[in-house]
Amino acid sequence: MRIGFYAPLKPPDHPAPSGDRRVARLFMAALRGLGHDVTLLSDLRSYNRDGDPAREAATADAAAAEVEMLAAAWKNDPVEKPDLLFTYHVYHKAADYLGPALKQRFALPYVIAEASDSPRRCDGTWATGYAQAKRALIAADRLLAITRHDVPGLVGCVGAARVQYFAPFIDPVPFASAAAQRTQHRVDLAARFRLPMDRPWLLAVGMMRDGDKLASFRRLAETLPLLRDNNWHCSLVGDGPAREAVANAFAALGDCVTLTGQMEPDQLAALYAASDLYVWPAVNEAYGMALLEAQAAGLPVLSVRTRGVPDIVEHGVTGWLTPDDTPAAMANAIGHLLADQDQRLRMATAAPLRVQRELSMDAAQARLTTLFAELGLPA
């Protein structure tokens, strides 16, 4: 089957790394792994961070031109026309102007993955973007909610028949491979970053940018001093325009914290595997790809029961979720897990098994195959 793929928030070939780009690439890989011919429909980016009306209008004009260009290309060579339109991540700040128009014009089936509806944006700054995003949701044949948190809103928008929960996923193979070499990775990383071998290693990974990511780092910086002793070391992985602000937030903790900078995927997988507990406050986090990666490497997760986090971290089994992100609640949970090595080991064993069973590329491909059968499309 020929699939036209589109990611209006950030194209999968965008040069700047992010979780959104990562998930778009994972969906493309999953579809290609099933034997489908996946092509990128367009690199038109509709992201409108501030809801600027002029930017939204310019995006609409550019999209209209793009639709005409695609229509002409498909008329000239009908083989190029896809059998399915597949859009990743649609919401009021990144509406899909292509999918609804192409579906209407060519009667093509249309699926949106990571769809969400926020009616409170129907007026005000993002009114135009919200209206277009909602048009896309209504036009789609199936909406895939990546978190259960988003399901009720989508059902309210289009009805239950066209909405399904579709768990986030990763390719767990690189992380399982890293876990198999945990001891050697720990020795190598200790030498590279001067990490103490005689203390438990905490780990947090995130883009260092203003907004929710910086808020999570700052919340962690407020949490760690509340631990009863300093018999731990925390590595912070990431980079970005807020790196200095992150460094300042943790400055008082001295050599208990190491900022590693951005790491290559294989090295990050090694650090997940070598660490003892992943810690992340998940401020306004949809779900968090790093939480998945950590578990795939056999690293228990300490996070917060918010939005989509409980979908991917099974409380008491693969990690621990505090009821809120207050520093006291998180510090108490971190202290408990640091003191209970047996529980961490049980979680370390359970986490990669659950990822493989429910949150892996294989699991996602099985769900996609079922979805296509339900839509009457080739598997």
UniProtKB/TrEMBL annotation:
Top-level division of the source organism's lineage: Bacteria
Molecular function terms from GO: hexosyltransferase activity
Keywords (A to Z) from UniProt: Transferase
Name this polypeptide is given: Glycosyltransferase family 4 protein
InterPro entries: Glycosyltransferase_grp1
